[in-house]
Amino acid sequence: MSYIAFIPARSGSKRVPGKNIRMLAGKPLVVWTLEAFMKVEKIEKIVFSTNSMEYWDIAQQYIKSDKLALDLRTPEQAGDKVKVFDYLKQNYSNIFKSSTANFVMGLPTVPFRNAKHITEAIALFEKKTKPVFSASEYNFPVSFAFYLDKNNGWRRAFESSPLISGNTRSQDQEKIFHPNGALYIRSIKSLESPETNTLYHNALPYLMSQNDSVDIDNEIDFITATALAKANIKMQT
Q: I want to staple 37 with a disulfide (CB 3.0 to 4.6 A). Which of 5, 119, 124, 154 is the partner?
C-alpha cells in the first residue's frame, strides 16, 4: 500500500499567534510533525498545506527532501472557520492527485506523535482494513462533568454521575477516550463517498499515551509541551 501524508499548518492562530512556527525545544512546532512523518518508509510524499509562504520557507529549511510538497491555500480556504475535513473533502483530487493511495493526516499541534506511532497506526489500518484515528484517555474522569444552569447551580452531564450516586472514587470510573488529532488514516477514494462526513466515519481508534498526545491549543499547553520536550531530551542524553 502507498501513503501520502497531509500536514495542515495555516497561519493566523488567534489564541497563540504564530503557533505552528513557534519554537519548541529548539525547532518550530510544525517541524516536529514533519520530521516524524519523514522517518516513515511507507510514506512516499508529504503534502504541507498552508496559506503562508513564510511557513513553507521554514519547512524547507528543516526538511530538505523531494518528498515534501506544497499545497498553497487561498485566504478563503484557510480561514479560522474552515474545517480541515471540509477542505479535504472539497479539494482532495487537487491535493493528492491520486485516488489509489491512502492518506495519513497529522495535525502539527501534536508534536510528540512519532514515527513509531505512525507505523503502528498504519499497521492497524492494513490489518483491519478500516480507517484509523488516534485517541487517548481523558486525564480526569469525564463522568464528573456537569453543566451550569441559569441560577448558578449545576446539573449532571451523565445519568450515572458520581456527583449523584456518591461513587466518587476515580479508580471506579470507566475509562473514556477522545480523539487527539495526532493521526487520521483512510483511503483517498473514501473522500468521494457522500457517507464520509467526518474523518471518524467507520474508523477504529489507535490509542496513544497522554504524554504523547499533548495538543497545543493555548499558552498553558505550550508550557506543558516545553517541559515534556526538555525532559525527554534530557532522558535521551
A: 5
* Digit-coded pLDDT (tens) for 151-166: 889 999 999 899 999 9
Closest by CA to 199, choosing from 70, 38, 11, 8, is 8
Q: Answer for the pair 51, 77: CB distance below 8 angstroms, yes or no.
A: yes
Look up the pTM and report it: 0.93
Return the ∠ at Cα 6 (arms to 84 and 96), rounded to 5°: 100
The CA–CA distances, whole Å, from 79 to 10, 88, 125 equal: 9, 14, 31
Q: Given this model, what pLDDT does residue 172 score?
A: 87
Q: By three-state DSSP, how is residue 45 classified?
A: strand
59, 44, 45: which is closest to 9 by C-alpha?
A: 59
The one-letter code for the residue type at 165 is S
